[in-house]
Amino acid sequence: METFNIPATPSLMKEFLRQMGGTAVIDGGLATELELHGAELNDPLWSAKCLLTSPHLIRSVHLDYLEAGADIIITASYQATIQGFEAKGFSREQSENLLKKSVDIALEARRIYYERCSKSSSGGTGDGRILKNRPILVAASVGSYGAYLADGSEYSGCYGEAMTVNALKEFHRRRVQVLAEAGPDIIAFETVPNKIEAQAFAELLEEEHIKIPAWLTFNSKDGVNVVSGDSLLQCASIAESCKQVVAVGINCTPPRFIHDLILAIKKVTTKPIVIYPNSGERYDADRKEWVENTGVSDEDFVSYVNKWCEIGASLVGGCCRTTPNTIKAIYRALSDRSPAAPGQK
């Protein structure tokens, strides 16, 4: 039932948003939901561990988000790197197959969702599920080098003096190629903590002639700069100058900072702005856990959404510690804000 023709070109995001009526919903946190489904993630591979042990749980979480109204689902490859899998004893071929599997699972979830839509005439089943035939994008997640280190350094951006743009390109190169070849609609470079990694991603897309469009999202802990202290304006300008980057924005950042960050990004980009904050909870990198009761409620989170869209955000979802309930609330907030695109049910 995949009847929506959105070409994988630099115009993909603008065409997608046109079909969606101007705004779209991204999914929410993956790891926390996997744990609620019974996954054990205390591992350097984090949510990518489920690619090995329980791919059906990943598919279930993707479906939960689609049925909560998400228009974009992000693959379980944030922490999945060839180097990380090889450190666990997997061969290069096995490691690459696990990366591909992350995309395959999301594509399968979308197919199942469309089948469920075709069997439902009401747009839902009376149990709160949203079953609405609409364009859905699969975004292949590429986490930062700091995510691979599994020491919290994607929240500091401190990679050391020895780390260079070229070294980062070599780290990410094959991973990006494999994910692009697996057939997602877009590549999501997420939680980019510093300028050199943004530069590495932009150069990789051009050097490797990656045909799949991409977005770049940065994270901030002060509402002004990215977490390393590098200028957000400089980082967003790198994204703006790369033709394969079709959206730029912020993820895994407390909601209270998002307003000012959108206004800053708007100064340097004409591309759609993508926003998916965390719940506002604080992450303890030493203990590798989120500090309870430091975030905002779903109601408070969603209260920001219309304002973010008014000042320039086009794509809104959630990151760590947000849930399908958060996403459903965002879906409803955006549905109230703008009518469905012409021709959409």
UniProtKB/TrEMBL annotation:
Keywords recorded for this protein, A-Z: Metal-binding, Methyltransferase, Transferase, Zinc
Protein name: Hcy-binding domain-containing protein
Cofactor: Zn(2+)
Pfam families, per the entry: S-methyl_trans (PF02574)
InterPro entries noted in UniProt: BHMT-like, HCY_dom, HCY_dom_sf, Hcy_S-methyltransferase
Domain Hcy-binding: from-to ranges: 12-334
GO molecular function, one term: zinc ion binding
